[in-house]
Amino acid sequence: MIMKKLIFFVLSISFTVFSQEDDSYNLDYNNSRNAAELCTQYKSSGFLSNAEADNALSKILSVVGASKRFVVAPCENINNALAVIDDGMRYILYDPEFINSISETSNYWANMSILAHEVGHHINGHTLGASVSAYENKIQELESDEFSGFVMQKIGSTLEQATDAIASISFSGDDSYSSHPNKERRIRAITKGFNNAKNNSFITEKKLTDWEEYYFRGNEKFDSEDYEAAIEDFSESIKLKPDGATYLKRGQSKAYLADYSGAKSDFIRSIEINPKNWESQYHLGRTLLKANDNYGALSALSTYFELVSYSGDYYDIWAGYYMAVSLYSEEIYNKSNEYIDYIITREDFISNIDAEFHHLFYRIRGQNNLALENFELAKKDLEKASGLDPDDAFSLELLGDTYANEKNYKKAIEFYNQALILNSDSYSIYQYRAYAYEALEDYFNALLDMNEAIKHAPDYGYLFFKRGEYSFKMGDQKSACSDWLLGNEKGDTDSFNKLIETCGYSKEDFYNAKDFINASIEERDKGNYIEAFRLLDKSRELGYNDIYYLETVLYSIYSKSEQEELALEVLNKIEGDTPEYNIIWWNSQFVYTNNNLKNWSQLVKKVEELIDRFKLDPDALDSSLDINFINENLDFVYDLYNYGGIAHSRLENFNEALNSNNKLFKIGKAIENNKFIRIAYLRLAANKDDLGQYLGALQDVNEYIKMRQEWSVGYQIRGEIKLNMGEAYSKYACDDFNLALEVSLKNDDEDEETQQEIQKLIDDNCK
Q: Domain span at residue 740?
């Protein structure tokens, strides 16, 4: 027991600065005030006698070529050795009884390592002050450990002897919240100094070169809520070693600064490094919830529970709460309640969650029950929440909403009144109290409340719509139309419709040039193509000058109205005006439109031009496929080879078609894309069938079937190949057609037309 205690104190030294350090080392270490005056202020340990300690100090200093610049003095009844600065003088104090407190076999090297460590503080110029941060203290300790290792090698110890005292420490692990480094880090520092001694290369400068140093300094800044500075250190740590724990801490820092996108990226990277990192999943879920990505939050938190399950601690209770909130936001109210029910009934709920947060759990369950129209349960929970936190205005507001849903509007107003006493800046409380007055046909008070709501949310257009309604019901159409004009300006569609219905305006009174384009697109999507053309022309008349955009919309109207020839004319017209960022889109449309028009020769020419332009030919002499480009433009690359192969087939250039589909296969292999590979097998089978290469065709279609057993097309094409192989194979062809029909009937994604086509093959060929 004594041994453990002593070693612990040796390695957990506290330092205090009494006065400003004097940079002059020309002091006589014997000419100082009585060191005994300092002894009562410290708890330390050291050597048996002053002489012994003095001799040991001389030995240590000799190996580094330094002179005695310290007072070495005994301090009775304290536990270890201690470096001190007082009035510009540096001291090393020690307990004379310390040597008797450790085993006879280890006392010499243990004491020498301890003294060398303390000398290291002075040699490195450490300030040794109480004002020194925990991070800086760790750096000082590790520098002194390195010095100790250097000295121990020089005076003849083994590495084991040099690290023996540290190795005996009973604690280890994370030192994020400690003022001292952990055992493992200290042993590494001693070992580094020991190895440096062999090369006579002891370095005393303070440098941040180790990822851990940045990490621990970042932790300290994180703990002091200096998140921007913490992010800088975590980023430097990541440069040296992209560690999952560092990504986690940087993500937390970003989340505190409301950089949810950056936090999300860091949490995901942490999870990629360590997929079992439940803490990163937890924080990812919280962050996504704050970023209003409820579905993503649910996914992350569900994964958290897969990794951890409920274990009765702080994390899983809060994870359950955030799951409940996410489920509420996704309108999955009963499931949300299940999480809250479980948490609230847990025996450890009270012990793990501070009382100031208890109301949150009852409040979210109250919200769920309100949404489920379980009004009595909602009131019970919300009253409980309000009782737990009398300052929670939101619970009172929700109680008002509950009574309003029960059509008890007077009671609802009472709770809204209470909520406003606590939070008079909430527009929503005024808004919903106005609705309660409206239900009571008290339009005057409803209007007054809506005035207050607008003061606190002046950009919320719907509030102007409602205030306009109240004015209109009170017979003030002029004020109503004025409010609806304001609401429309703020994007409220109800206000816009009221202006048209009530105030004598037409829709086009409010359109600018771009609005006409948007209206044109809306009419196009409805299939009202004549109106779409008219609105597009109106935009031109008003001087809209983005010709490319106008022509693009015009193309889309022609294309959707199946006027492919006119669509192609537009595409040819705007080719030279196509911005670089949209060049892929334009070329895709060109390929697609020519395919629809069956312009096979033009299509082949364009496809070959594009394959060469974007270096997409895996067989070219200078082939260097841009995998990133392909992955970013998968549909475009697929369409080039797919439609190119089809065009060659229609032109009966079967060998060219075969070549095109072989290249599609090779690209699929290069990017590991099963769609490319699967379709290539199917197309190759058809090409080889056309060329009379039936065995090769069968091999390819069988490979397709392995990948898509649930679709009928593979069996159908295999049957057609067997038909082409002659009468002897017709029976086997019929087996495939029957199998194709069976598979198609089971597949809900296949239509009746496909099944009719297969049935005709059976009727025509399978008597």
A: 714-767
